[in-house]
């Protein structure tokens, strides 16, 4: 074993139900390959590599039972970061440090599990290592509840978030249906520029409930006048209205309904807040009926108690397949899945050049939004349904889900 090489994996971006399943897949396949001595994990993403804060995951997860526990634990076992590498032509200090740490620990394979910004790190680091003729293989493993990565049918974490959102709105519909009064309830759902999460609320509809009655996505310009009119017209037909809305809806000029324009994160993204509350006040002031807003916020990200088994299994498989491709010599790629059949639902796994994915964004197709811009089509329903299938068998202790303790 002394002549064998090591693998380093890190996680980045926002947490999900399924990102640890991908981590479990990477660890499991690495150790099963017989070609890896140790699997290291970096604390808090690429920043942990820079600080040389590494742990030996292959010692911690040394049997299938522990791997299974990791697979069913939400959030990010290794912690996260939101750190953007600079252009190496302007400042290569981070790259020099990363390569130094990797070589020191005999790391030949580096895996980064994350979303759009994480794939930017994969692209930059793989290109730098190749230019420097360093035999280091860099592989991206996808995750994001936003489902906005290109070159993949859907991203791990999205299916479970969609299942939570649809379930929550179904339960909200039961809550509101008992009152004999006019009411409007607005559910604000994550999604800055891509409306996949808000669109998934359509799965809450049943033979007895049309909720959500209206769905608004950022892919269509939002008109407050049209919104108020939509609500007015629906109130003529029914007393309780439930509305799903993406946090990132904006007007025809591209201005977010609710944003703090002077406040941006390190990637230049405008920080959004209060879309549902703004619309609540708008309905109160224009229509005057009972109205309230609910912001699902972070609750939709890590609800492992209602995770999609399909989501967890695919996330685990993506981690495993990524290891296989890297050991075949692939670098500068993201492992992906593509749908091959709708009924029965099947997927196939492959890799795609990271340059076609990093810093790009996949949005909801216009043809999957209705003409009025206040609902989604049956094509969206067909796309979504397979992703929420199956239940995760969470173990319980003292009445609560039993998860691995995340301590960095």
TrEMBL record:
Substrate binds at residues 144-146, 190-192, 247. Its EC number is 2.7.1.90. The active site is at residue 146. It is found in: Cytoplasm. Non-allosteric. Its cofactor is Mg(2+). GO terms for cellular component: cytoplasm. GO terms for biological process: fructose 6-phosphate metabolic process. Mg(2+) binds at residue 116. It comes from the Bacteria. InterPro entries: ATP_PFK (IPR022953), PFKA (IPR050929), Phosphofructokinase_dom (IPR000023), PKF_sf (IPR035966), PPi-PFK (IPR011404). It catalyses: beta-D-fructose 6-phosphate + diphosphate = beta-D-fructose 1,6-bisphosphate + phosphate + H(+). GO terms for molecular function: 6-phosphofructokinase activity; diphosphate-fructose-6-phosphate 1-phosphotransferase activity; metal ion binding. The record marks 117 as: Important for catalytic activity and substrate specificity. Diphosphate binds at residue 14. Residues 7-305 form the Phosphofructokinase domain. Keywords: Cytoplasm, Glycolysis, Kinase, Magnesium, Metal-binding, Transferase. The record marks 143 as: Important for catalytic activity. Belongs to the phosphofructokinase type A (PFKA) family. PPi-dependent PFK group II subfamily. Clade 'B2' sub-subfamily. Homodimer. Catalyzes the phosphorylation of D-fructose 6-phosphate, the first committing step of glycolysis. Uses inorganic phosphate (PPi) as phosphoryl donor instead of ATP like common ATP-dependent phosphofructokinases (ATP-PFKs), which renders the reaction reversible, and can thus function both in glycolysis and gluconeogenesis. Consistently, PPi-PFK can replace the enzymes of both the forward (ATP-PFK) and reverse (fructose-bisphosphatase (FBPase)) reactions. This is Pyrophosphate--fructose 6-phosphate 1-phosphotransferase.
């Amino acid at each position: 074993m002394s002549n064998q090489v090591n693998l380093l994996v890190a996680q980045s971006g926002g947490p999900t139900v399924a990102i640890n399943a991908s981590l479990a897949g990477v660890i499991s396949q690495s150790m099963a390959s017989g070609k890896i001595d140790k699997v290291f994990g970096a604390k808090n993403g690429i920043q942990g590599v820079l600080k040389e804060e590494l742990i030996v995951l292959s010692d911690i997860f040394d049997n299938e039972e522990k791997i299974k526990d990791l697979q069913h634990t939400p959030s990010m076992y290794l912690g996260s970061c939101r750190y953007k590498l600079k252009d190496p032509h302007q400042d290569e200090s981070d790259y020099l440090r990363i390569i130094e740490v990797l070589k020191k620990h005999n790391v030949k394979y580096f895996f980064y599990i994350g979303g759009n910004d994480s794939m930017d790190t994969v692209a930059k680091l793989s290109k730098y290592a190749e230019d420097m003729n360093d035999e280091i293989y860099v592989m991206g493993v996808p995750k994001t509840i936003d489902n906005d990565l290109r070159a993949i049918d859907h991203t791990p974490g999205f299916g479970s978030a969609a299942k939570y959102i649809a379930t929550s709105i179904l339960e909200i519909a039961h809550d509101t249906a008992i009152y004999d009064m006019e009411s409007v309830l607005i559910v604000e759902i994550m999604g800055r520029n891509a409306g996949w999460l808000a669109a998934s609320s359509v799965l809450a509809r049943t033979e007895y409930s049309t909720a959500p009655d209206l769905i608004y996505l950022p892919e269509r310009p939002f008109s407050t006048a049209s919104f108020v009119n939509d609500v007015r017209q629906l109130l003529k037909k029914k007393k309780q209205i439930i509305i799903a809305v993406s946090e990132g809806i904006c007007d025809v000029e591209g201005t977010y309904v609710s944003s703090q324009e002077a406040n941006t994160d390190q990637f230049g993204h405008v920080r959004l807040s209060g879309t549902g509350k703004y619309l609540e006040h708008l309905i109160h002031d224009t229509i005057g009926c009972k109205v309230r807003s609910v912001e699902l916020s972070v609750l939709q990200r890590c609800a492992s108690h209602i995770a999609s088994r399909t989501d967890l299994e695919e996330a685990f498989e993506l981690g495993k397949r990524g290891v296989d491709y890297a050991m075949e010599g692939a670098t500068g790629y993201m492992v992906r899945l593509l749908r091959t059949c709708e009924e029965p639902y099947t997927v196939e796994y492959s890799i795609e050049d990271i340059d076609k994915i990093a810093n790009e964004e996949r949005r909801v197709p216009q043809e999957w939004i209705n003409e009025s811009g206040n609902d989604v089509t049956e094509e969206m329903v067909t796309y979504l349904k397979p992703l929420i299938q199956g239940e995760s068998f969470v173990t319980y202790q003292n009445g609560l889900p039993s998860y691995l303790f995340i301590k960095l």
